[in-house]
Amino acid sequence: MTDRRKFRIGVVQMSATPDPEENLERAIRLVRTARSRGADVIALPELFRSQYFCQREDHALFDLAEPIPGPTVDRLAALAREIGVGILAPVFERRAPGIYHNSVAVIERDGALAGIYRKMHIPDDPLYFEKFYFTPGDLGFRSFRLHAGRVGVLICWDQWYPEAARITALTGPDLLVYPTAIGWHPGEKEEFGEAQHDAWRTIQRGHAIASGVYVAVPNRVGLEHGDVRGDRVDGPGIEFWGSSFVCDPFGRVLAEAPADREEILVVEVDPHEVERIRRHWPFLRDRRVDAYGPIARRYLDEPGGAV
After folding, report:
1. pTM of the complete model beyond 0.90
2. Residue 139 falls inside a structural domain
3. Which of 6, 11, 169, 198 would be 211's cystine partner, CB 3.0–4.6 Å?
């Protein structure tokens, strides 16, 4: 059996105000609470420091970006060092003039920066105009060895791609974490909301099953209009659906947050369970890696998909 130790993942589901500093202070309070409940690694939602600003295309909003290390990472690194906890800190990263990323800074419990993940898949949908702001990630699919355990990190839109989950899982983590900002267009909720939410939950449970890993998903919650310092987007906004959850390597949901309020989940991750389930369901053993070359092509245009 593996000699890796159990650890506890803390999942923070939070709402956001128009004030970035207030949001950071709220996140710090929630991280402290998660740590007091026994979390060893704590994950915050995607772009938590502001309301979800990608509801519009506005060049002035690039001013929200910051370097890594920078103000947000420095504050959270000091917190990590103070209370002895790993933190997965989503950041609107300013890499260079004109190059910005949607990133997660992975902070070790001593405050050291263990590494950065940059979101690989960038959406462009109504009220999700991320291609305007974010350069696609160029660091690849990664996991990070923290004192508590090895954790793979992906971000929101990445969660719909089995290739991303599989490659990250192959780097050796026991847990995949998806900081997320997903919700309903209020006008679509009645007709499509239940199916959209079920698809989101199902695809991620499927990643856990297919790769034999735990999956944790911190989402934001609440109705937002992309309001940053009092400048909001006209219209109905986005109703972020919360429902953050953690599931085990067989896709069983171990804890789930409500859809209508902030919440903290603290769940044990057991590497022995990863080992046990992979022995009985050896999907990684039976992969036909010699036959998967076509997956790197955009589409198979030959009749019948022959290769």
Report:
1. yes
2. yes
3. 169
For residue 119, indicate whether it is catalytic: yes
Percentage of residues of the chain with pLDDT beyond 70: 97
Among residues 46, 66, 93, 263, the one annotated as catalytic is 46
Q: Which of 66, 93, 108, 119 is catalytic?
A: 119
Instruction: Based on the residue annotation, tell me whether 46 is a catalytic residue of this protein.
Output: yes
pLDDT at 185: 94
Count how many domains the chain has: 1
Structural domain that includes position 247: 7-305
pLDDT tens-digit readout, 111-125: 999 999 999 999 999
Confirm whether 1 is domain-assigned. no
Domain-embedded: residue 2: no
- Residue 261 and residue 266: Cα distance in Å, rounded? 16
Query: Among 156, 239, 247, 256, which one carries the catalytic annotation?
Result: 156
Residue 232 lies in a domain: yes
pLDDT digits over 128-157, tens only?
A: 999 999 999 999 999 999 999 999 999 999
Instruction: Read off the CATH number of the domain in which 296 is found.
Output: 3.60.110.10
